[in-house]
Amino acid sequence: MKLVAVTIQKFRNFVEPQRVEIEPDVTAFVGKNESGKTTILKALHRLNPANGDSTKFDLVTEYPRWKLARDRRESADLGKTIPVRAEFTLEPDDLAALNAVFTAEIPASTQVIAFRSYENEYATYFSAKLADIVESAATASAVDSAELKELLTTSTLDEAIAKAKELAKSLKDTQPARSKAVGSFPGVAEKYRFLVQSDQIDDENRKVLRSRVPKFFYFSNYSVLPGETDLTKLAASVTAGEALDEEDQTVVSLLAHAGVTPADFLDANYDSRKAELQAAASDLSREVFKYWRANTDLAVVFGDDNVNVVEPSTGQPALHRFLKIELRDGRHGDVETNFATRSTGFQWFFSFFAAFSEYQNSAKPVIVLLDEPGTSLHGEAQKDFVNYIFNELGAKKQTLYTTHSQFMVDPTVYEKLRTVHDKATRENQEAGVDVSRVNLKADRDTVLPVESALGYSISQHLFLGSGQHLLVEGSSDFVYLMRMSAYMESKKKPILSPKLSIIPVGGITNMPAFVALMGRRLEVSVLVDGEKSASVLNRTRNAAKENDVPADRIVAVSEVDNSLPKDGDIEDLFTIADYLKLYNWAFPNATVTEADLASSHGRILGRIESHLGHKYDHAKPAHALTENQDDFFANIDAASASNFEKLFATLNAGVA
After folding, report:
1. Residues 6+ apart with CB under 8 A from 275
2. Which residue numbers in the chain have pLDDT < 50?
3. Which residue from 171, 232, 453, 500 could staple onto 320, CB 3.0 to 4.6 Å apart?
4. CA–CA separation, 256 vs 277, rounded Å?
5. Which phi and psi angles does 401 have, rounded to 5°?
6. Would you give the DSSP letter of residue 14?
């Protein structure tokens, strides 16, 4: 079976029913902390758990608190509230197994519904379209198409049966063969009764149905393997059927991967059991180190120790056997250290594979729920794990995971992402959680990881593109350079070298970092403002020097011509008349003239802002050039063109 949708209501911060569509392979829930992402996974896990002990709903602690007292007064059966309801489609092997035990062949479009109430009643039943049931029964009864058309007008199975009886009676004298066929429909249709009435499913068949419903394997940071485990105590807990915490459950899964239980390590054949566990660890390690690239020289080692432990029941010491997990580090002289001392990222990574190994190759249906996976991993390791989720884990087991990390989001498959946003406020607690696909309506903070992932992907392609990169401060620099270069080309004059790929860095203050990061592995040039950014310009030049970027590739606008202001911007390459033309186009009500600026000196941007008494958006005049380029270039001042020609010559001189 495949999970296709889950509906959650009146559970923690979910208030009204929220139906969430699930992808057939991987679904990622993206949102801020405390938004409700974990709530979705917890609800599904409790529906039909494969691991862990948190399998029961608690009305008092998990029903929305501010509604509990009021709703209890209004409903005596609040415990029958269904916080989670899941919809599953049937796959071919499910249909084959179910058709072998049920009284009629189940239509392929039939869904299986599973739910659990606050009273922890677990139920499963079929959900089939009446039209499909009628068509299936009609086919089995050899009903003619005319009568089938009549039967399809009904709204319940009982109505269809009644209609068939009427048709059979009306056709008895004139069309006996058709009458006989439609007359057999009621008996055949009754065999499909189990599809519309769950109480028609007997206990044995219900067991078969439930065995086909996937269980949910949940893994979080609390499931990490401990460095050592009291096997004596764990074996007693398992034998007594006690609830295990997530750490102990992971240990049990690790042992199960070796085909043993905690109790197996308490007998005299411990050495043979240890050999089996080492074999399993070796197998598990090979799987882990296919994806763990930070240190591939690690080897997992299992040891044991007999320790005197005071028994709580008697107060007397007793010998307990402890399992110790250690790592041998080939990079550092094969030193062995306890698993718990390793990085939290590696602990999480190895523990996940250990916990999931019990289910990885199991034929039993399991859906994987990963709560904030890899938060302690480096960004590149998170990307590796996302690749594992989408390319391997999701291909074998349907997987749902939550994240607020940009590195755990793959923007190329955005249709598999769901945003989770808690819209409730102090004034409107009823708003609850909204789960939706990624779109423009989504909350800005909620989709930030998606935007960041997309931006990172774009920037990586820009940074790693072919040719040399020209770093500029902002979008207006980009526009002016592109438009002026195109104009120069039309006039058969020198243009900005096509080998330079222009990248706006979002402001002068970002420039030193970009030069330091990109200059190490790429060919870069830089265009910055003059003395107004002197300190940043010096830092940029220092970053270039430290990363072997030639000094002549760091170009300040003021250096292009002695006539330019020492604190000049790219806008100062235009004559005052030319730039004011762009400014007045950009702002429809603007009428700034050269006379208005006659009493001031320096950079054109500062002079205009001094005249206005406020700052303005410097990008708008650049966009005005794009919108009015024919008019502008028809009357451009020769001095403006000359300044840009000098700038292009200066920048082109630094092209490798």
Report:
1. none
2. none
3. 232
4. 9
5. -140, 155
6. B
Neighbour-count burial of 364, counting CB atoms closer than 10 A to its CB (0-12 exposed, 13-18 middle, 19+ buried):
exposed
215 in a structural domain: no
In a domain, 184, yes or no: yes
115-144 pLDDT per residue, tens? 999 999 999 999 999 999 999 999 999 999
Sign of CA dihedral 309, 311, 317, 320: negative
pTM of the model: 0.75
What sign does the CA torsion over 93, 83, 359, 273 have?
A: negative
Residue in the structure block whose two tokens are 């590149």: 380
- Picking from 604, 623, 649, the residue whose alpha carbon sits closest to that of residue 488 is 649
Does one domain contain both 514 and 620?
yes
Please name the residue that has the structure tokens 């602690």: 61
Taking phi over 0 as left and psi of -120 to 50 as alpha, with beta for the rest, 403 belongs to: beta
Name the one residue in this structure whose structure tokens are 């049931």.
133
d(CA 377, CA 370): 15
Q: Are 266 and 180 in a shared domain?
A: no
Q: What per-residue confidence (pLDDT) applies to 532?
A: 53
Cα–Cα distances in Å, from 28 out to 24, 558, 641? 12, 50, 52
d(CA 451, CA 18): 25
- State whether 647 and 503 are in the same domain: yes
Tally the domains of the chain: 3
Kindly state the tokens that stand for 123: 């139920």
Q: DSSP characters for 456-492?
A: HHHHHHHHTSSSEEEEESSHHHHHHHHHHHHHHHHTT
Query: Do 181 and 233 belong to one domain?
Result: no
Domain-ending residue, one of 351, 372, 393: 351
Please indicate, yes or no, whether residues 173 and 259 belong to a single structural domain of this protein.
no
Task: Give a yes or no: residue 445 inside a domain.
Answer: no
Burial of 142 (0-12, 13-18, 19+ CB in 10 A): middle
Q: What is the pLDDT of residue 253?
A: 85
d(CA 416, CA 435): 13
Point out the domain boundary residue: 291, 319, 351.
Answer: 351
Query: Which residue range is the domain that position 602 belongs to?
Result: 465-652
Task: Tell me, yes or no, whether 162 and 297 share the same domain.
Answer: no
Residues 646 and 514 both lie in one domain? yes
Residues 174, 244, single domain; the answer is no
Asked whether residue 240 is assigned to any structural domain, the reply reads yes
- Starting at the earlier edge strand, list the strands of the sheet with 554-556: 500-504, 468-472, 524-528, 554-556
